[in-house]
Specification:
single chain, Amidase signature (AS) enzymes, 11-stranded mixed β-sheet, 16 helices, about 40% helix, about 15% strand
Amino acid sequence: MTTSEVMAYISDVTQGNLDRKCYLERLMVRMREQNTKMELFSKLHEKPQGKSEGALAGLPISVKDNICVKGFPTRAGSKILREYHPPFDATVVSRIRDAGGAFVGTTNMDEFGFGTFSTNCAYGLPKNPFDTNRSCGGSSGGAAGATAILKNHIAIAESTGGSISCPAAFCGVVGFTPTYGRVSRFGLIDYANSLDKIGVMTRSVEDLRIILPIISGRDPNDMTSQVQPPLDSTEKEIRKIGIPKELIGNITDKKILETFWQAIDKMRQEGVDAEEVSIPTLEYSIPAYYILACAEASTNLAKFCGMRYGLEGQHFDSMYNNFFTEVRSSAFGQEAKRRIMLGTFARMAGYRDQYYMKALRIRRKMIEEFERAFKGIALLASPTMPLLPPRFDEIEDMSPATVYALDFLTVPPNLAGLPHISMPMGYANDLPMGIHLIAPHWEEGRLLSAGRIWERKMEYRFPMDLEGFS
């Protein structure tokens, strides 16, 4: 059953033919049973409700734990926000509510988005539905896992350097990240302001066509969303795609490379040509990204000090430095502390030009090279991740530098603010792999069109179909 068919079912509910309340109650019972084992949700709603009318009438919607939901625990995967209940809805949440969507809960994530495997979560370790000994990916791991097991559901997630694409590939679902500014960030607990983008995870490209027009568009509360061309999801002709040699040349997993080239051959069968292209600055994307992201994160996280948001300090008679240090030392996780220190170092007066300003110049150069690469081609393509979903014991043996380097396929479009999509491209040892397509700024329609072409050639697999039907 597709999401459209589920919505038709719910439409019957709103007409009084079926009991919508019972439908949602049955779904929530089954979700709680699964969440006990898989820990995909940070918190499930007690009584989710959606409006009886609207484009999303009654459709279950989950939201990543760093997107504010009024009166509901929104903790960004961190202990320092464990007491925080926002007094307002994020713009994306309010638009979903207005369209009738039923908010079912917040999904687990790496603390503040700091991670590739969702192993830095304060509220549970999300398990991959294909193999519970393996990672869902990060930082939106819970959103991807929930999409993989819930047949009639759409997940709202967020990406800074690949936090939608990576888990989408590991969990075998569709992960869509729009152009920076396409979807309002108002109500998002920021990781890095110039990089964060709210996006979507679904089971098909057709589901994206339902949700994207609802969450996209200008918002007076978010200045980065003000100037943008309207979302155009009409069918586009995709004649040629480019394959950046700087990305493909760094992949060592033979099965992923083999499956990727098979995917390109399938696209050729649909009349889409492919050619190799060169984008030299991709070589510097990882260091540039981590300098910029950590510098912005260290500034954003300064406000979490035990006084204004979330966890409160207790020793008000101590010196302010001791007060802040006590709260932040106990409530921030190891990865959050590491990135705060890296970012603070990069912003120091003696190192700002050497690191931060140089990273900004690399990003500007990369955007220019992407623009040149798109002349004559519609999209860029690569695998989404350079490895299959790793086991948790394998992750424990990885150094932070090794983990950071694994993002080299997903960081470039995020650094440049380009729209991109990850879709399942095949399976190895019953584990999913993703294909990554990147479009020019504001050309989300090209990704949707290419996705429809791809889904004519590819049949997705899902580990289970959890739904509220008896």
